[in-house]
Amino acid sequence: MRSWRHPSHPPRARALGAALRAARESRDIGLRELSRIEGISHAMLSLWEKGTRLPKVKEVAAILGCLSIIGDERDRILELAEHAHEPNWLEKVMPNAPQDLTSYIEYERTATEITVWHPLLIPGLLQSGDYARAAIASDRRNREEVDKRLLVRMARREVLGSLSRFQALIGEAALRQRVGGPTAMIDQLEHLLTTTERANVDIRVVPNGTDFHPGLGGAFTLLDFDTLRPIVHYEHYRGAAYIYDEDQVADYRKAAKSIASLALSERDIHSLIREVIAELET
């Protein structure tokens, strides 16, 4: 059974929670002992450390005082607390943006490595403008909303410059879909070829006709971070969910490696993409 839930808080709350837990454990103080000293229920303290609830800055300051956390470490954790209460850039651009989109983009921007598998579509960080517009407009949103979401999706591509590694595992079917029509698809495929030249980007294509593999269960994204545990994100038609359980995340990591083992060589990928472009041009 999957251990998943919809995001209900900014990802920065997880970073704050991890810092609070590390501070408490560095003083060898248990949750119940801290609860007794501070007069806060241990259940609430646990929620704060997990990042599922967000404490006020003054509550964080009180905990740090109780733990005798001072100097640079205190300043760092208080800064995390202050930032956790601030709206992120998407909330400023789209105040009514869905919470799942807001949370995912925040995770995406704070990740160090991302591995994404999609059997049928080009992943968002690799989408060209016309391809993205066609995908966004497919559920008949009004023009203004489409324009806003397109702006967000194009801005998301900047993440590629900050990641130490981005691996995209794509099914061959994604290359052969005609999202947005032949011209848009040609532009998309040419964009893929250009992006493969980036040193930190690894684009792999799994050919049609392979035997059963774990990727046939659907698309997913694995996100790794500097100080937080890795998570898995997966989307469905009207929403998205996350997996936080360490063992299950490890299973998805194994699945990604299994999918990658079926992918074409870099040379064959380039040949296939050019072949599909030629077919679209005829």
Strand content: 5-15%
CATH topology of the largest domain: Endonuclease, Chain A
Instruction: Note the run of SSEs as H and E.
Output: EHHHHHHHEHHEHHEEEEHH
- Cα radius of gyration in angstroms: 22 Å
CATH classification, class level of the largest domain: Alpha Beta
**Total of DSSP H or I helical runs spanning 4+ residues:** 13
Summarize the structure.
With 282 residues, the protein is an alpha/beta fold. It is 52% helix and 13% strand. It folds into 2 domains: 10-84, 434 Repressor (Amino-terminal Domain); 90-281, Endonuclease, Chain A (2-Layer Sandwich).
What does this structure look like?
- The protein is of the alpha/beta class and 282 residues long.
- The protein has 2 domains: 10-84, lambda repressor-like DNA-binding domains (434 Repressor (Amino-terminal Domain), Orthogonal Bundle); 90-281, Endonuclease, Chain A.
- Helix content is 52%, strand content 13%.
- It has a 7-stranded mixed beta sheet, sandwiched between helices.
- Strand 6 and strand 7 (239-243) form a beta hairpin.
- The relative contact order is 0.13.
- The model is unreliable at 1-8 (pLDDT under 50).
Which structural traits does this protein have?
2 domains; elongated; 434 Repressor (Amino-terminal Domain); 13 helices; Endonuclease, Chain A; 282 residues; seven-stranded mixed sheet; alpha/beta
List the helices and strands and how they pair.
Blueprint: E1 4-5, H1 11-26, H2 31-38, H3 42-50, H4 57-66, H5 71-84, H6 89-93, H7 99-110, E2 113-118, H8 129-137, H9 143-156, E3 165-171, H10 172-176, H11 182-195, E4 201-206, E5 220-224, E6 231-236, E7 239-243, H12 246-260, H13 266-281
Parallel strand pairs: 2-3, 3-4
Antiparallel strand pairs: 1-7, 2-5, 5-6, 6-7
